[in-house]
Amino acid sequence: MAEQQRNSPGLSAEATDSLTLLERLQQSAEVLDQLSTTPAPGLPEGTLALLRQEASALRAMRGELGLLLKSWSLLTDTSQKLLNLPPDELGSGVRAALEVLGRQIDAQRGYVNLLSDDGEHLSDAYEWCAQGMRPHGLASHSGRSVVGFRWSLDELRAGRMVTVTDAAQLPLEATEERRICTLLSIRSFINAPLLLAGRLIGWMGFDTVDQPREWKPEERHLMRLTGHVLVNAVERKRRDAQFLHEKEREQRAQSLGILAAGLAHEINNPLAYTAGNLEYLRERLPDPSEASDVECRQVLDEALEGTLRIQRIVADLKSLSAPSTEATEPVDLKAVTESTLRMAANQLRHRAQVVRDYETEVPRVHGTVTKLGQVLLNLVLNAAHAIPEGHASQHRITVALRAEADDVLLSVTDTGCGITPEVMPRIFDPLFTTRRAGEGMGMGLAICRDIITALGGRIGVSSKVGRGTTVEVTLPRAANDTFVPPLPRVGPPSLGRRVLVVDDEPRVLDLMRRLLRGHELVTLANGREALAHLDQDRAFDVILCDLMMPELTGMDVYHSVRDTWPGLHDRIVFISGGAFTPETKRFLQEVRNPVLAKPFEAQHLRDMVMTVGSARLE
């Protein structure tokens, strides 16, 4: 092997100065040797033996001190190369550290391989080669499986170094190691584990190609020291990258939230009068007496089902924009699950058999029916989309409910295609999807995670490619498991109310006139008209006011009414297609007035009018 320079050009000044001490120890030992070999007349033999013993002790001390100084110098140099770099320059720092150590231990190639979270694939690889050496090309191996190196991995996971003096003497079970050594002409190698909190995150190695060689104890010692610095640098990079990722995710979520809420608001206006008019028509249809009547009712049912699907999409969009302010309550998760499975039955029946695996008694959980239904629907539809159509008898979607200590465990398991390791880290990213265009927006799991986390629960996913996926949701039990829903306060049904409706969408005003027949309605198209009318006529039981209008918003109307006619502001019910500004969100959290979300059910609207109107009459 060509002689390499053993001292790194980057050794610190302190280490260089310390060489003076080593030289003095060497000189002192030589003086003692000289005194013991050419003694002064009259020195007893015991004194000469003591001189020789002291000379030997000085040489041993010099050797130990030299190793400590070398280790300290290497550690300082490596730390400077690794720990003072920004995260995106870690690769250059690792290669520089490999060069420093490689020259110290007379190696020809060095490498650092980092493992993925599952410990079975390479996530990153860095390499250094002495001049004239052919590299392994490890940078292109990212994502490759390492399970074939079972012999080496077992040693490394146990915290032991893999030291191979002669590759020809590898044990029989090291099949993959033998193949690689032959392929790359490796004659000798040494690998040191990189451990973080007892878990193997990778390894650092060196090899030679011209002849077998011994790896000295001091060289192994230097590798371990360098390994500790490497682990600290890698962990620092991971923390910094995670911090940056969270900041980017937060900014992306804010942008997505503004966009999503704006879209939801624009969709909800036409959806409100479309769904409302369809529901009104269905109410007005007589009981079917002829086939044509049955067909008309079926057409309306299908149209209403379409509006419900749009409502679910809009609910997902609104979930991206802000956490829900809906009050939580004890929820019967089994009932929600059954309702969701009935809703998704048409999409499930052509793909898989649904298996229900419920415990006899499932405690109620802390949450809301709406949000938990949204989570379940997303999980069940995701499971269905992982299974191709046409082979329902060969596939299963299993929904399980279990009580665990203070929690309830919900799991949805499918026998579909599974999730690849490359995709798994991104499954909770908003707008990330592996489906074809038009088959999904990639928001489902992100929304599920946000809802479950907000309710104090946890969500996890495990998957095997070709075997299927399991999503587990853990929810806290409800503190009070004897929930009785409050009855709405309604007045006598025959007593009509005087209602002012303010909305900038003419078709919504038309819908209100249809749905609130029997009440006395005044409809106005904007906030200025509403304030002008109230200045002359304030005898209203209920004021239905759109929240987001041009010029004067619902908030402006509320503040003007409260300041000008105190008490009248308590009769305001806000109509909202999706409040998406921070100011609007704060406003709705501060005021006590009810909110009617678009699109609304006809009966919900009527109950709201009767309840608020009854409160005024009391």
Features:
single chain; 618 residues; alpha/beta; Beta-Lactamase; Heat Shock Protein 90; five-stranded antiparallel beta sheet; five-stranded mixed beta sheet; 16 helices; 17 strands; 48% helix; elongated; disordered N terminus
What does it look like?
The chain has 618 residues and is α/β, with parallel strands linked by helices. Among the domains are: 208 residues, Beta-Lactamase (2-Layer Sandwich), CATH 3.30.450.40; 148 residues, Histidine kinase-like ATPase, C-terminal domain (Heat Shock Protein 90). It has 16 helices and 17 strands. The protein has a 5-stranded antiparallel β-sheet, with helices on both faces. A 5-stranded mixed β-sheet has the order 7-9-10-12-11, covered by helices on one side. It has a 5-stranded parallel β-sheet with strand order 14-13-15-16-17, with helices on both faces. Helix 12 links the parallel strand 13 and strand 14. Helix 8 crosses helix 10. It is elongated. The termini are far apart. The relative contact order is 0.07. The N terminus is likely disordered.
* Assigned CATH superfamily of the domain at 13-220: GAF domain
Strand order of the largest sheet: 2-1-5-4-3
- And the CATH topology of the domain at 13-220? Beta-Lactamase
Tally of helical segments: 16
Radius of gyration, CA atoms, in whole angstroms = 37 Å
- The end-to-end distance, rounded to whole angstroms, is 101 Å
Instruction: Please summarize the sheet with the most strands.
Output: 5 strands, antiparallel
List low-confidence stretches: 1-16, 437-441, 483-494
Oligomer: single chain
CATH-derived architecture of the domain at 13-220: 2-Layer Sandwich
What's the number of extended β-strand segments? Answer: 17
CATH class of the domain at 13-220: Alpha Beta
Range of helix content: 40-55%
